[in-house]
Amino acid sequence: MTDTSSGVLLDIHTSALAGMGSMPRHFERWAALAADDSHPDADLGEELFRSLLIGGDDALTALWGRHLTAWDFVENPQWGAGSPPRTDERRAVVYERLRLGSELCKVLDEAVPVAKVPGATVITREFTPWYTPERAAARSFYWTAYERKLRDKGWSEAAIASLDQASLAVVERLADPEQPAPRQAKGLVVGYVQSGKTANFTGVAAKAIDAGYRLVIVLGGTLNLLRAQTQRRLDMELIGQENILRGADVTDVDSLVGVDYVGDDEGWPEFVRHGGRPSTLGAFDIERLTTRDNDYKSLAQGIRALEFEKRAPTLPLHDSANLHHTAARILVVKKNKAVLTKLVKDLKQIHGILGELPTLIIDDESDQASVNTSDPKKWERGSTERTAINGLISKLLGLLPRAQYIGYTATPFANVFIDPGDDMDIFPSDFLISLPRPAGYMGVQDFHDLNSPVPVRERTYANSQEKAHVRGIYDSTGDRLQEAMDAFVLSGALKLYRADHGVPDANFRHHTMLAHESVRQDDHADLALRINSMWHQAGYSSAAGHERLAALWEADFTPVSAAHASDLPSPASYDELRPYVNLARQRIGSGGQPVIVVNGDTDSYFAQLDLDFDRTPNVWKILVGGTKLSRGFTVEGLTVTYYRRTTQQADTLMQMGRWFGFRSGYRDLVRLYIGREEPFGRNKFVDLYEAYEAVCRDEETFREQLAQYSVMVDGEPQVTPVQIPPLVAQHLPWLKPSARNKMFNAELVEIRSPGRPIEPASYSLNSTVTKRNTERWRPLLQALSTTPVSFSNPPDNSSTLTRTFTALTGTVTHSDLISVLSGLEWERPRYFDPHLTYLRQLDGTLAQVDDWLLISPRLASDNRIDASVLGSVPLSLVRRSIQDGKSSFGRIASVEHRTAAQRLINDAAAEAPAQAQIGSKTGIALVYPVVEGSSPDSVQAAVRNGTADPSKIVMAFTLVPPRSATSADRRLVRFRAKDSRHFGEATIPVSPSPQK
User: What is the pTM of this model?
Assistant: First the structure.
């Protein structure tokens, strides 16, 4: 055995791991095979391998990180022995198959820890597997190049593996491009606002093209600017330099006529390089039918652009003898009626080949009109353009029988699940995939203290996201616009400081602030003028200006950065930061104009703005606009947002999520200035921050539901895509589909919640109904004792302290509770029925629940109002407000109360029930006498002489059934088809009303 260098060992390990293919195998044997030819005397012992890892051999660690992470992430592999992905259990299976020693495994675990992150949620109907690991590995030219590009961009192995699995989940559900009979699959991929959906569909396109799809049509945005952004991204990360140049010599100016990017895009060196024309490397070329500057106009070179050369003329194009030797075509087209009409017209002129052509249609931002609106009339008005676009997509699908359709959206409440009047030709009948929240993404959890048990008065910059990032605008604070501008200058200065002290500056290329006060264009001009005037009067180079900035830096930025970015360089004093303040001021004010108004919606308007984040070296500006910032338009480098709404119309909340996104290197600097008391209608005010939190909470709850229901039962899906609409309807009570001649076929019958909270929120606020409902609770309220009981939550991730609260309690039989619940009247008829169907069966039919522990929590004494409800012992009244534009409350139970209830239920289900405080067949009902109102005065007004007015008391509740309250098959949801003759169809005609 000779001394073996780390380079030699790296070569051997690289060959051995590549030779294994898609599954882990006996490593020692494969390493010996790899070493046999070139390095027969190499030291292949585990001791050398282990010492190199401990010594920090980056190349060897990266190689094993790539393979171990990929194996960790694979969903349901044949070799996985049933182990769940991204767990220690899966990693143990991998090590066992590799037959590695325990000491080496420990070192590998330290070098490459298991990434315990959530995977994608897949709601699917059954499909025939065709995209096997072997088939994927056999043809992976463009996917491998894309994977390499992501690595070069700094993506982690876990992020790449996550994208690999999520894109695989899409591609394997498309039709096999080689199959003789045509089949169309349709699906929807749900991401988050500005969270990298483009990366997913680029990965899907790469794998689909490798597998044999030869025409890819990407519908990208409603403006040329947005379409060009998508085109450039695909050109840079998928198509690559050689396919763009098509043989042109970059040193010969004459040969570059008509070639984009070369010479006018500083990012050209970053475009993927394949090392030669792919067709000369055993793969195939990609031909672009659109370019960065040219949307689809007509088929270039006439119809010949879609002439596919067949190596075997007598066989169809989709036969493998032809398919893998012909070039693929890509079009990135604007989602515009005229453009799509032209494309449909041209395709109609092509005969024969369309029926043989495997096609992929990717619809970016498929959710044309936001459903997060409280104005159904606005929803119906938006359906006209939506219907026109969907109709043209349907025509494309009709012309291309082998076309697959994938929609991408940022909301799980997509149009297609809501309105059966939308064209059902694009209903995602085959699959719905909800992508996980990506690492490094700033979303709702980073601006809102969702589910935080920390009392409001104890929240700090360190334990509260709201405290760290959100600056509320109240009447008492003034408009805070100057402060927001100061925060923008300071955060820019801190970025420049960090770049000067070793932090990679790529993320600081652009630095922007978004200001939105109104939907009216005249108001935008006024706000821009006001900001411009304030900028020039701010004195950023004067002693007074620096004094103001120093105070904000010390009071706000210093403590937040210390709590959330202690690993990043930070100036020791404002004097150290001051030179960078001057540089930031110069960048923002360059050209004498710190403000850009963005309120147009035409291509010519955006062309004159010079707001192309791809081609402009540095955009350091304050952008004034709002709803006219078209969907899909990403404001790069967005650090400070100033959001208010002074109009009285209930415009959508969709544009508010622009402060979400990736903020690497400056998360701690992000600030949201938002109106908390904005005028809304006559004599009403709205808290925009709370309103947006309610929308996001609904979406997050729905994503959690989908994750629960995606678990297979007896090898079959619990939920298929055609059954999603009634689940969505549970979250959007106001929405009535505009179509009068169609309805969704699936009907939600039952929702089972063993060990999980059931918290209805859509209570009737009609005083007569409220009074009747409260009176129905009378027998249960009589069961509450007069002596408070103490409940405690031990220290956890949210707090190092034990938190306690007191409550009045009582025990009632299951039948008594069901009797009350069965009589309640709701804002929407049958709203509670799916839960009630489940609860009624807990009498022994489905499972046995003996009784329920009622818990009526008492509020802290300093702000508590107690009152008797229909002769009950005095109860703590709770104030809750109706969500903006909805007929339901936000969350009813507090986090601390739910945590305590959940712990009691979990302890009762544990293996040592003797220590449990309740039995294993006891459920918990948290009960709250709620007064609807926006101020504490509302509660006081509902009480007279210690007695609550039952017409003003909503008896709200959260139920947590015991974990044993389920059937043997563990099914959580049941549906039925309204018309069983069309069981697998999403919609059916509405039956005409019988004539009288």
Answer: 0.89
